[in-house]
Amino acid sequence: MTEQTTINVLACVASWGNHGMVALPDKHLLPVQYQRRIGRPLCGDKVDIEQQPDHQWLVTRIHKRSTFFARADRFGRQQMIAANMNQALVVIAPEPSPSRDLIDRYLCANEILGIKTILVLNKIDLIGEKLSQLRQQLTAYKQLGYQVIECSASSGAGIDDLQQQLSNQTEPAVCSLLIGQSGVGKSSLLNSLIPDLAVQTNSLSNATGKGKHTTTIAHMYMLADQNSTIIDTPGVWEYGLWVMPPSELAYAFKEFREWLGKCRFHDCQHSGEPECVFQQQADQCPDFAKRWQCYRRLLVEQERFNS
């Protein structure tokens, strides 16, 4: 490796400030530095690196991203978190049950960003009313075409199905994003899906010089097939959407699309205007009504950002 001055990197596996860690084509990890004129890579970015006279490695290029995942910062601006994933796994569980509108927020974000979403119901070993209610809630999403995988990191139920989804795709290498509320068991799922997770975590810690890897940033891990990867993101209690036009927000709800442009007023924002077709659909379909209520709450939230 010392004879080589420039390397095309497999991916950036983590970023901290002006430095980070990349995975080489042979899967070994290498610490790198960033430069202001190039920018800071996201976890999942493909980059080029070049060795400097002081033997440090510098990122010299960030390749064009096929996709990226984002959230809102405290000012409502779009904040990118990870890049180049094929699909996003939204992990939910009976305990803690999803916070209000959390699932819809994730689905809307991924629809806008063009990322396939799979809903992962973890902790199905927790039999009870909360699990039954959550399964009933997920039925509405299945009817919209969203895939749902049920599993339990504790008992192992459904882990094989989830493992297959992570690697058995048409692409030669699949990158999956793992997102969800704090406490839903993402770490336990990772341990079930990646037998050598502790080894990879220790390698990352040793390479960074940190005694323990941080859980406040996104990290990429290699799956057993050595081609596919998974990006783990920090757990959240709330997930916010960035400011966007009402028309874009409405389009993010799949079942709304066939009704867009059919209201009496061409600039209808579907927030209670006269002769809005959304109101008519909500009166006829309880599931539509619930999602419409979520949309209207998001509109109010976005108005607060703009005020």
What can you see in these coordinates?
With 307 residues, the protein is of the alpha/beta class. It has three domains: 6-62, OB fold (Dihydrolipoamide Acetyltransferase, E2P) (Beta Barrel), CATH 2.40.50.140; 68-232, Rossmann fold (3-Layer(aba) Sandwich); 246-306. 30% of the residues lie in helices and 23% in strands. It has a six-stranded mixed β-sheet, with helices on both faces. A three-stranded antiparallel β-sheet has the order 1-5-6, with no helix packed on it. A three-stranded antiparallel β-sheet has the order 2-3-4, covered by helices on one side. A hairpin with a 5-residue loop joins β3 and β4. α7 packs across α8 (286-306). It is globular and about 70 Å long. The model has no long low-confidence stretch (mean pLDDT 89).
Structural class: alpha/beta
CATH topology assignment of the largest domain: Rossmann fold
- Total DSSP E strands: 14
How far apart are the termini? Answer: 54 Å
Superfamily (CATH H level) name of the largest domain = P-loop containing nucleotide triphosphate hydrolases
- What proportion of the residues is helical, as a percent range? 25-40%
State the strand order across the main sheet: 11-10-9-12-14-13
What Rg is obtained from the alpha carbons, in whole angstroms?
A: 21 Å
Order of helices and strands: EEEEEEEEEHEHEHEHHEEHHH
Principal-axes shape call: globular
Instruction: Please give the CATH class of the largest domain.
Output: Alpha Beta
Strand content: 15-25%
